[in-house]
Amino acid sequence: MNYDDNNIFAKILRNEIPCIKVFENETTLAFMDIMPQAQGHTLVIPKEPAITIMDLSTSAAVDLIESVQVISRAVKKAMNAEGITLFQLNGEAAGQTVPHIHFHVMPGSILGAKHHASTMADPVELESIAQKIRSAL
Ligand code: AMP
């Protein structure tokens, strides 16, 4: 399968559609999931175009994990979470809905979390959570 330049995260990276950004560096971007499974659910994506972890270059994978670590620490602190769940789906058969690789950083446990990509959050509430995460970076 070829990378689709028009997937929603590619559009976010090109600033063609907005996101609630919490962190950006040369190689990665982190923003609030608009259908969070728990309060503070954040996505971390590489700027390199790749559908799954298998398609990503090693150096982009290293940079991505570094940012996942940074965001995990900030989300944990901002949300006062005792634990952080990371998950990352590869391919439609695994449940991936956006074909640009991303890590989910979610406070708490997957058990008891809301359904995947199901309910839109209030953008005002998302922005206020994003501010807490930015302050915790
Ligand atoms: P996955 O199913 O692992 O590909 O996850 C895609 C995630 O992206 C889901 O959790 C969606 O809620 C989230 N999502 C979809 N569109 C957007 C968007 N425009 N901004 C932020 N998050 C999004």
Task: Write up what this structure looks like.
The protein is 30% helix and 17% strand. With 137 residues, it is α+β, with helices and mostly antiparallel strands. The chain has a single domain, classed as HIT family, subunit A (2-Layer Sandwich), CATH 3.30.428. The protein has a 5-stranded antiparallel beta sheet. The longest helix has 21 residues. The chain binds adenosine monophosphate. The site of adenosine monophosphate has 13 residues, from loops.
SSE layout and pairing:
Blueprint: H1 8-13, E1 21-24, E2 28-32, E3 42-46, H2 58-78, E4 84-87, E5 103-107, H3 123-136
Antiparallel strand pairs: 1-2, 2-3, 3-5, 4-5
The structure holds adenosine monophosphate.
In short:
With 137 residues, the protein is of the alpha+beta class. It is built from three helices and five strands. Helix 2 crosses helix 3 (123-136).
Number of strands: 5
CATH architecture: 2-Layer Sandwich
Q: What is the CATH class? A: Alpha Beta
Question: Which consecutive residue ranges, at least 5 long each, have pLDDT under 50?
Answer: none
Mean pLDDT: 97
The string of secondary-structure elements, in order, is HEEEHEEH
Query: How many separate helices?
Result: 3
Full CATH superfamily name: HIT-like
